[in-house]
Amino acid sequence: MNAAIEVEKLEKRYGHVRAVDGIDFEVRSGEVFAFLGPNGAGKTTTVEILEGIRPSSGGSVRVLGKDPWIHGRELQRLIGVIPQDFHFFPKLSPREAVDLYAALFGASVSAHDLLRRVELDDKADDLFDTLSGGQKQKLGLALALVNDPKVCFLDEPTTGLDPRARRAIWAVIRSLKAEGRTVFLTTHYLEEAQLLADRIAIINLGKIIATGSPADIIRTYGRPERLRIEGDPAMVDRLRREVGVPAEVEDGAVAVEIHDKGDALKVLSWLGSSGYSYSSFRTSQDTLEDVFIRLVGSSEASTMELSPGADVA
After folding, report:
1. What domains sit in the chain, N to C, each tagged with a CATH number?
2. Mean pLDDT over residues 239-257, rounded?
3. What is the pLDDT of residue 4?
4. Which residues pair with 249 in a beta bridge?
């Protein structure tokens, strides 16, 4: 599969601070790629370099085979962008906004159809400053699609949306993939990335610390599957001693690592004859959010010393 985005040894420096520190990754054509990291990790800086908004300090970047900083004007006609906290002219309506973007790009597009696609057609003639935060994000997504882009950069597109509206945006993202478009997604909703992304890269303190499919990352960095028993915590020591399984108290329940079905059967058989009472049991696995928190730990890029005026994100 051809690469839509190629990044090699990318750097961005602000004085002595390396906001992006020699990262490498590739985004395949037609996939949803999630770029994740805590605040200050280097996400926004990287995305803005890919979009041609900022120059890099070193390394190589290609989007659809083009250097975004050198061929920015040409590339802008091939990509769609929704930035964080999308804003627009307050006294224009969504319909007028789409028509304006279409005129700028020389594109032929139905404002009604595009707004309906993001479930904003009922607000087509309302002024932008009367829209809710979620409705403004929907308009941003609609405008990102005006020029029929090959690559869509969606920077936290569901921030501020209620659950139903979020699912509507998820449906749009899935439809973009089905159409063969490439989606580069940043989000702080880890369950969103786990549901939508084909592959993920996690950046922290300017470095890529994990890449792969959500399942691969969870399998590589997550803990083994656990049997959670809502019962007396005192059973932990006896489980370890008599059954020989790793057990601990986790969030008020007894959690036992299980590596195969035989482990679970041994624990449940022991539980039935142990004399301990319990109210319920279930198996659980780490989510992408669990793994993300474990990988990034408590480190905060915001503690780095910045040169005056530097903007590291």
Report:
1. 3-78+149-219+292-303 (3.40.50.300), 223-285 (3.30.70)
2. 90
3. 97
4. 254
DSSP for 87-118, written as a single string = ---TT--HHHHHHHHHHHHT----HHHHHHHT
Structure tokens at 110: 């139905």
Half-sphere exposure (Cβ direction) of 231: Cα atoms closer than 13 Å: 24
Q: What is the CA radius of gyration of the chain?
A: 24
H-run or E-run covering 187:
none
Q: In whole angstroms, what is the distance from residue 131 CA to residue 135 CA?
A: 6
Question: pTM of the prediction?
Answer: 0.84
Question: Helix, strand or coil for residue 289?
Answer: helix
CA–CA gap between residue 185 and residue 309 (Å, rounded): 27
Residue pair 304/312 in contact (Cβ under 8 Å)? The answer is yes
Q: Given a cut of 60, is residue 306 above it in pLDDT?
A: no
Tokens coding 286: 């780490």
pLDDT, tens digit (0-9, with 9 covering 90-100), for 289-299:
999 999 998 44
Instruction: Flag whether pLDDT at 311 surpasses 50.
Output: no
CB 58 within 8 A of CB 19: no
**Dist. CA 37–CA 222, nearest whole Å:** 17
